[in-house]
Amino acid sequence: MCDDYLDAPSGKSPRSWDRSTRLLIAWLEKYFTFHGERMPNRYEILLPYGTVQREIYEQYKKYVENPVCNSQFYKKWKENFKFVKAKKTNTWSFTRCTTCVTLERQLTKTTCTEMRAFYRQKKEEHNLRQMFERKTYYSKRELAQQSPRQHMSIIIDGMDQAKTNLPHFAGRNPKNLNPVDLLHTHVTEVLSHGHGSFHAYVDIGEYPHDPNLTINIILKELLRQAKESNNFLPPILYIQADNCWRENKNRYVFSFLQLLVSERIFNEVHMSFLIVGHTHEDIDARFSMISRTLGSKDAEIFEDLLKILQSAERVTKIFDVKKWLEPNLNVAQHATQPLHYKFVNVEGIVNFFYKDYQHQPWTPLVGHFLQKVPEGVPEL
Questions:
Q1: Exposed/middle/buried for residue 173 (C-beta within 10 Å: 0-12, 13-18, 19+)
Q2: How far is residue 355's CA from residue 337's CA, in Å, rounded to a whole number?
Q3: Residues 239 and 347 in one domain
């Protein structure tokens, strides 16, 4: 939510605001939450390229009774949401949404009034679709927060490696410090909503960033939370991850999730992804906090970095789960396109479902990712 960013309002105390102003602040916060992208490297939320304040004001007037005037709208935006900005250029340093890029190019190329209206409508439909995907993620967070004995929700993502290479010096690095001589570290963070905990797992690049690392970090997090909850895990697990087939969206990870259900560790496991190019979420707000801390603090050795990360641990060994699963894997169709996956134990049998978008019905997969439970244990 924008609460992670919201500054103390300037001027009057929020308690002295009239009802229309309070409704305006609430509406803006909700709008920015569902339409903006949290930046992992700075304290900002960016709205899509081409966003016009006047058009947002027109939307606001449609949904709110007794709206404030446009000058008051812009004033409150400036006072309370300084961190919310529209992208100034069509370029983007992170992965971009193909649909957004295509529609923006079409809008730039055409001067036809009817076609511009058509592309604007398509863009709004796309923005609404990605907004509903975010809402689905938020609903799972809320379930874990409201009933942690029944639901568990985690989001897992990796931080930009260039930010945490060692030694790190606040400000400019010395000229005699060659980038190739730095110790390359990789920080994977897990945010657990029901427990309100945030934990970092740090390696120094000795392991490939592949399904093995993802599976091991999920295992570590489940073990950590079980220990903190007197060896208890709720029956339903929700996992939100980056939409990357190499690390997360593949048959190894899905086979592992099937295994969690078949071994009765969970009755139900869901794994979801946001639309590519719209994946910056609450975990990125945490990354931006770490980036700001690194902007003012040195981290010369590994222990310094762990202190800055606070709740963190060094990954010293992992299981070769990928090799252990390999002989028992099936070739599964529809494994990389959908955004939502579900494994459910029904009378001792694991059923697998998928769907492209949150509003669509679940489609059952014929067969399984895993033929049978592998024998023995994975090698270290």
A1: middle
A2: 9
A3: yes
The residue assigned the tokens 């004001």 is 57
Q: What is the side-by-side strand order in the sheet with 37-38?
A: 37-38, 45-47, 84-86
Residue 359, both tokens: 């509003």
Task: Calculate the CA 102 to chain-centre distance.
Answer: 23
- Give me 296's structure tokens: 């003012």
Find the range with the poorest average confidence among 18-27, 60-69, 274-283: 274-283
Containing domain of residue 350, as a range? 134-364
Helix/strand/coil percentages in the chain, nearest 5? 40, 20, 40
pTM (predicted TM-score): 0.80
Q: Are residues 89 and 206 in the same domain?
A: no
Tokens of 98: 């193909």
- Do 229 and 82 lie in one domain? The reply is no
- Give the span between the Cα atoms of 277 and 269, in whole angstroms: 25
* Count: domains in the chain: 2
Task: Decide if 319 is inside a domain.
Answer: yes
Return the DSSP state at 335. -
DSSP 345-358: EETTEEEEEEESST
Q: Which residues make beta-bridge pairs with 266?
A: none
Query: How many Å apart are CA 43 and CA 76, to the nearest integer?
Result: 19
**pLDDT surpassing 70 at residue 5:** no
Displacement of CA 32 from its chain's centroid (Å): 16
Asked if residue 204 lies in contact with residue 315, where contact means CB atoms within 8 angstroms, the answer is no
pLDDT band at 352 (very low <50, low <70, confident <90, very high): very high
